[in-house]
């Protein structure tokens, strides 16, 4: 309820702000005054729309803008007068929390604006509404070091007075974060005095957040409180308590403590199931998620947690939660095979998940089961496809498709025949949604064709089915035909591909012509399609240039189009696909002709994107293009040196410098040991696989003499430390890609220390 203040005072000065000169997520901020005024409307629908409009514009997805800080005083005044106080104070907290700042006059300006309004908000800590008290405590904490002594005192006064357990938990967290010197005493007292469960959970989390000592008694307290989610703490702080606690422990280097806490949680979940406790389902979900999350961070976790995870596989109510982890953890699980085999032979949805796990675990029975149930096992089919194409193959497994004649899923005639039957199935006439089997239906031809391609010429008996499916599924089937057919005896396959390459959309023709080139070595059809694509402008241009680069000297007929692409004025390349296509074209022209001037100006243009918002990835592509030039890249060095300060770009820049001066101890005046420091500083856990690999490539380019003993120890940690280097990307590939990175890091270390 609005407390009766004349809201004219709340909007005082609103019209004196030149909102037209400020910007938010959608452009000029001229609509902000009306949105703020609508918050005080007596019409609920108007108020709700205004609130959403402000979320969308001034704190869009956590980003703050020029118009954000000027709006803060008006939001604070309205909240202090009872206008949607919980919601508006929450918005202010989100503004203070933001680290994604867009064109602010100075870093931290939005947070400072909220901190300046805290005297107006602090009385809300005593509001009758517990949600308002909680939100206010949270918002004060988001102001971090900007919190003044009076705000700290107000929080501690609230802690002394608060009786609601959930609100008290939030106040404790806020007190600990804004008063770190007193956090240990506060948390210890909360746990010793046996405060209500939400407060104990908050104290445990504050203990790890503030870097306080952790010991076995605290781990035991976590176990006694499980499942933590039932205690209602954590939603304001946007975290799930058990997962957040183990993540914080692992980040602090308390690896064994983090694993032990999750291990105990899994054991507790299994015990609650046996007792048929009402908390069993919540305990399993919480423990399973904490285990999955920790395994994505810790290399030790999967092997240590698997024994505690497997008992949950025996219960039909929890088996579906466990089986996906068996597929993605890259961890042998022979003890799980009997149970998985039993589930896989059933008729429900769990059978598909179980068979997918058997495929990934290399069970010999998986091939026959997939052959007999192919039509009803889409997840297992996908797993078999990804294994066959190397996408989920365990790095330590020496089997690589095509390297020694073996494939992860062995050739099997029964499965071959089953694939032929499925290829003959007409696709549904009506497009179904992804949630109604549409995605599986669309992807099935890709997976079926991919399996045949992985078997190579062993799959020649399936040529009739592949040829029949070619008009319906030209992209995946043409690639399979290129791998399966023998061009010396299968002339009819060559003729079919030639016919298909001359019809349909350009993207389809490109794929089929590429398959024809792979099969026969004849690039004419592919060059003809690429010639058309290179005259067009769109998102596919970059892909066309990339394909042309695979042709080597056979791409020479494309030089006129490639040169035209490079010669376009820079102002015509304002989109990411356009500049990336130009970079690829410039380097290809240089490779085909030796024309240095074709590459240098465009690469320099790409480097300039480093100063643009969202331009870092494009600048990285430009640096990688420069890596291809070797000594020819020397004119680019002055523009590259400042990029050494960017950890994302530094490894590729070091590769360029090492390539420009391959025999020099100090490329561009920088000692190789100093360059190694720059690269190692970029080796941050949790990065993408490509960025992590770039680090190893740069270290290798520097050569063995570049490294001190301490630097070699850092590389050993990349190879054998517990924290995963790869931590971003598709969740079901993170562990696989980190295992591959670890193998590559070990190989690098052997090379550097030989």
Q: Describe it for me?
A:
There is one protein chain. With 754 residues, the chain is mainly alpha-helical. Among the domains are: 1-116, no CATH class; 534-628, no CATH class; 635-754. The chain has 40 helices and four strands. It has a two-stranded antiparallel ribbon with strand order 1-2. Strands 3-4 form a two-stranded parallel sheet. Helix 20 packs antiparallel against helix 21 (366-372), helix 21 (366-372) packs parallel to helix 23 and helix 31 (559-567) packs across helix 32. The N and C termini lie far apart (75 Å).
Sum this structure up briefly.
This protein is mainly α and 754 residues long.
Question: Strand portion, in percent?
Answer: under 5%
What is the structural class?
Answer: mainly alpha
Reported for the largest beta sheet, the result is:
2 strands, antiparallel
Mean pLDDT: 91
Sequence stretches where pLDDT stays below 50 over 5 or more residues: 392-407, 434-438
Number of strands: 4
Silhouette: globular
Strand order of the largest sheet: 1-2
Oligomerization status of the protein chains: single chain
Radius of gyration: 30 Å
Assign a percent range to the helix content. Answer: 55-70%
Number of helices: 40
- Our measurement of the CA-to-CA distance between the termini, rounded to an integer number of angstroms, reads 75 Å
Keywords for this entry:
two-stranded parallel ribbon; mainly alpha; 754 residues; single chain; two-stranded antiparallel sheet
Question: Could you outline the blueprint of secondary structure elements for this entry?
Answer:
Elements: H1 7-10, E1 23-24, E2 27-28, H2 32-38, H3 44-58, E3 63-64, H4 68-80, H5 85-97, E4 100-101, H6 109-116, H7 118-121, H8 130-142, H9 149-161, H10 165-178, H11 180-192, H12 197-209, H13 216-225, H14 241-251, H15 255-274, H16 280-295, H17 301-309, H18 316-328, H19 337-344, H20 349-361, H21 366-372, H22 378-388, H23 413-423, H24 438-455, H25 463-469, H26 474-484, H27 491-500, H28 506-520, H29 524-533, H30 541-549, H31 559-567, H32 576-593, H33 596-607, H34 616-627, H35 637-640, H36 650-660, H37 672-681, H38 689-702, H39 709-720, H40 734-753
Parallel strand pairs: 3-4
Antiparallel strand pairs: 1-2
